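Technical note accompanying the year-one report. For the benefit of new consortium partners, we illustrate the data format agreed upon in the data management plan: each record pairs a sequence with a structure-token string. No post-processing was applied to the example shown here.
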Amino acid sequence: MATLDGGPLALAELERIGRGEAPVRLAAEARTRMTQSRRTIEAILGSGERVYGVNTGFGKLSDVRIAPADLARLQLNLVRSHACGVGEPLPDEAVRVMLALRANVLAKGLSGARPEVAERLLDFLRADLLPVVPSRGSVGASGDLAPLAHLALALIGEGRCRLRGEELPTGQALARAGLTPLLLEAKEGLALLNGTQAMVAVGGLALARALRLVDLADAAGATTLEALLGTPAAFDERIHEARPHPGQIRCAARLRDLLAESEIRESHRQNDPRVQDAYSLRCMPQVHGAAWGALDHARAVVETETGSATDNPLVFSSEVISGGNFHGAPLGYAFDYAALALTDLASMSERRIDRLVNPDLSEGLPPFLTPDAGTSSGLMIPHVTAAALLAEAKVLAHPASVDSVPTSGGKEDHVSMGMTSALKLDQIVGLVERILAIELIAGCQGLEYRHPLRAGRGVESVYGAVRALVAPLSEDRAWSDDIERLASAIRSGDLV
């Protein structure tokens, strides 16, 4: 059970919520805070004071005062007008996380919304009733307006939803789930729309997968090193204590453990003329470790954001203050940083794949890892696929957060493009999952030619896990299913 009280949520918690594995509830203290916050809004309405988002228009129209009789219509118009997302819908996992995160923001008691609004978001989660949220349309300030508007649209009974996987008009889906449309009161439409929950959901789930990829890159790299008769000397603890970046130290320790007790290493220790390996092997701690550091920084940013009030204006005791917590710059920067690091991780993996299949570099392995080179192409073209995937990742790694297009008549004159950064990161993660799957296939095939010698104890575990999904190459076959099967296991976390 995940209890939402407005505090931070770990990436692992987001994944469980996304998979529908963590039932959610609103903390009692959150209900109390929300009730107190709502009283402040009602007091403002009673006083007639003009306050942005309560009894004014929005954006460029924030100076337009709204008559009390029109406040309910204002909320409906706000939701309807902002629900203009386009493109393919976000996956169910991301929508579940959006629902939970939006409820968690309201639970902080700084938004002026009634507890019933947060509870209705959680009702949708409990019923597995998921609004159809188009993936494009957010510039990341004032938050993810279009995606969140599609969430709010479902709450008021409009738009479309997926009820346990079946897409329906929201009115029908609500009736089947035993729910009624929510009637929004003053400030509540804005409280649902302002925020960063779409980019946090998409980027946070991608980041959780990306962090697993760093560990997997260590495993794939160690497997490749064994297949290429590499040396673990560069992972000596003393080297990394002399440059004590935490990620570098962490990666070197993991590589030493993966390679411990290797019979392959002992077989060439005395007669190996090489003094050192290529950078793609020797510098894994420096590169993998730096990537882990970048991703760990992004994780800290995301987890902080999950427990942050990101709407506007915010309600503090008896005062309502307009600010800019909806701006997605912290997330946009973090996701772009993560995308750069992950793409470089993939770049190093692709170089290792080349060394495995290239007969000029593979330390006696047969060309393209096939015993029948010429008649057979072996792993020649999986390497080409890895190169194509890497090229796509490099294009996507261009940062989105350096761009800004003024909107809303110039009132919103600097935006974050954080949702674009999140969507690009998600795509890059999928590409890198497949690149590492190809390296694992190639590395394990390389180990076939080192038998009966055993690799390091950790590498042997990697070999066994891969062989449970992908058979050794005996003659040419179509590789697509093998690559996707392994990539799917990587994505789900089953291959750790």
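Partners are asked to follow this layout when depositing records. The CA atoms of residues 313 and 322 lie 4 Å apart.
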